[in-house]
Amino acid sequence: MARPWLHLCICLQIPGFCSQLHLSQMPEHILAQTNNKTEIICDLKEVTKEHTGLYWYRWSQERQNFQFLVYSNQMGKATYGTNISQDKFSVHRASSYTSYSLHISHLQASDNGTYYCSISESFQLLLGTGTQLGVVDVLPLPLKTTQAPLSKKPVQYITKSKPASKKGACSPLVWVPLATTLLVLLLSLIPTTYRFHRLRRRLWLRVHRQ
Question: Least packed by Cβ within 10 Å: which of 2, 30, 117, 139?
Answer without folding.
Answer: 2
